[in-house]
Amino acid sequence: MQQQQTDEEAAEQPQSMADVASALQKLSLDTSASGDDLLSAEATIASLTLLALTISQGRIIRGDCAAKLSSAIVDIVNNVLEGGSGEPLRLPSNADGFTTSVNELVGGELAILENGPYLERLISIARISLCLNKARTLSSKSISDPIASLSIERLGSALSIDSFSSTNYDELRPHRGCIESASVIRACLQGSTNVAANEKNVTPSSDDSCKYAKLTPQYHGPARESIAGACKTMELEMNCSEMNDSASLDDTVAMLAAKSVLESVLTLATGSSMRCGSKTDTAQALSAMCNLAEVAPSLETAVVTLQNSLESEAKMGCVFVADELAKKEAELKAKEEEKAKRTAARGTNNNPNASGGDGKDEFAGMSEAQKAKILKKRAEKEAKAAAKAKAKKAKAAGGAAALTSIFGA
């Protein structure tokens, strides 16, 4: 009787970290499968986490085993996050392979997971949610708008700061996202000497890069708001209790959110590439996507495209800024050297012990008090000139440091 109780208690104990690590090492996956057949390491963690949440609700699997299986999956996730598995865990993206792999990981009496309509949907929602989080970060006003400002600075006199004025957005087109984007761009361009101060000084250009740069707030703002709204929708969708087998699952809510983000991400990627003077192929047949499993990989690709476009744009802008700073520093150095030469020449001519061109002392006939007064004024004048030059140099160095801090140049 005592031995039976011991066995039952052992069965109720959650998996130890050593057991989980052993299960991860024994997991057999088809390594011949292409990368497209496996989830990314992040998507695997997200899918397992969402699966544990779904099972814990007690509607897919009922009874005590639901809590045990959910706890076992959580242990697996924690072990992977702590690096106990050695290598990043990547499970199959198809529901059948995912089910088999999870059963291998939990093992024993907990290998009861069955493939159902909910599982394919769960994997897709986990993948889409990861993409939404990345898209929200990339489209934020602290990333996308400052990078666009670098391109506007680079395009120079073909654009005007007036294009992003509060009159154009706060008054004439007061969409919240547009107002916010234009405000960030104005702040980044404040004090710019490259961008025209007003429309009168703009050099006309038919280049598409100038057009997309000028209209940046009009697509950055709406895209950012669309992504933020979809994130709230998907968060609620993930935390909803899964329906039972007798009810049909309708993905309209999730599909609308995912498609809106996909279109927003593609719009941002197109804008970024066009501001750089290149066009990225972002065409996607949204109408042909009928379920979440089709939207998820397309959204993953689109987010990677957006990230690459913004990185390329940021690098191009930072190179331009660095070149401009180098030119300014070279000009300032040349001016300082020329000024130093003139000062040295003037100092030689003003030397009281030196003779003028006619061999006469310029202080001849003056009292010592008069000589001292003249020399004191000259010394004060030279000190002021030196202080002014030092202040200019410090200001130039401060500008370079600020650009390095903001844009990582």
Which key terms come to mind for this protein?
409 residues, disordered N terminus, disordered C terminus, mainly alpha
Q: Can you tell me about this structure?
A:
This protein is mainly α and 409 residues long. Helices cover 67% and strands 0% of the residues. The chain contains 14 helices and no strands. The protein has helices at residues 2-12, 17-26, 41-56, 64-81, 95-106, 117-138, 144-155, 166-171, 176-189, 208-214, 216-239, 252-275, 292-349, 368-407. Helix 3 (41-56) packs across helix 6 (117-138) and helix 6 (117-138) runs parallel beside helix 13. The longest helix is centred in the C-terminal third of the chain and has 58 residues, at 292-349. It is elongated, with a radius of gyration of 34 Å.
Helices and strands in order:
Layout: H1 2-12, H2 17-26, H3 41-56, H4 64-81, H5 95-106, H6 117-138, H7 144-155, H8 166-171, H9 176-189, H10 208-214, H11 216-239, H12 252-275, H13 292-349, H14 368-407
Helix pairs in contact: 2-4, 3-4, 3-6, 6-11, 6-12, 6-13, 7-9, 7-10, 7-13, 9-11, 10-12, 11-12, 12-13, 13-14
Which value, in Å, is the CA radius of gyration? Answer: 34 Å
Total beta-strand segments: 0
Most strands sheet: none
Whole-number mean pLDDT: 81
Strand content: under 5%
Helix-strand sequence: HHHHHHHHHHHHHH
Question: Which runs of at least 5 residues are low in confidence (pLDDT < 50)?
Answer: 1-14, 29-34, 401-409
What general form does the structure show? elongated
Distance between the termini: 72 Å
Residues in helices, as a percent range = 55-70%
Structural class: mainly alpha
**Helix count?**
14
